[in-house]
Amino acid sequence: MKRIAKFEKVSLAEFIKTEKQENYDNVLLPKRATSGSAGYDFFAVEDFTLAPNETIKIATGVRVKIECGWVLKLYPRSSLGFKYRLRLDNTVGIIDSDYYNADNEGHIFIKLTNCGDKPLTVEKGKAFAQGVFVEYGITVDDDAQEDRVGGFGSTDKNK
Question: Are residues 45 and 60 in contact, defined by beta-carbon separation less than 8 angstroms?
Fold first, then answer.
């Protein structure tokens, strides 16, 4: 199996821009549950409850250094999607390799909505989302040469 990425914590200074300082020690790096798992579980830094139709934006405290030619795709844990109809607000999160160098240190945020009819509670340290690394290709006439200039949602600002 080719090893193409490394998870890291964002700095404390970056983390406390959006999250409580006391939660920094609760940041766990994503990991696979079994040797056959494709997904790396992302863990809650504090307890949260989502009522039906409620949305939450979660600061994970995590960034990832990825080799060029690969992307990290984020999804809700399949069991939570099945039991609670938990959805990512952007359907699939895409973490590009150059996001690591963004002005927010590549801090990964995950925005979720409970589309089900019962409350969902996730305890601190429990997995709520998963990320899968996928190789991708580009077209033969691709000429993209711009560098990322910002954090989340910034690639369309390069134009």
Answer: yes
| Domain span including residue 55 | 5-19+28-136
Burial 75-88 (b: 16+ CB within 10 A, else e): bbbeebeeebbbbb
Neighbours of 145 (CB within 10 A): 6
- Domain containing residue 56: CATH number: 2.70.40.10
| Chain segment 114-133, per-residue pLDDT in tens | 999 999 999 999 999 999 99
Q: In whole angstroms, what is the distance from residue 99 CA to residue 95 CA? A: 7
Which one, of 41, 14, 38, lies nearest residue 30 by Cα? 41
Q: Name residue, tokens 């809700």.
A: 76
- Whole-prediction pTM value? 0.91
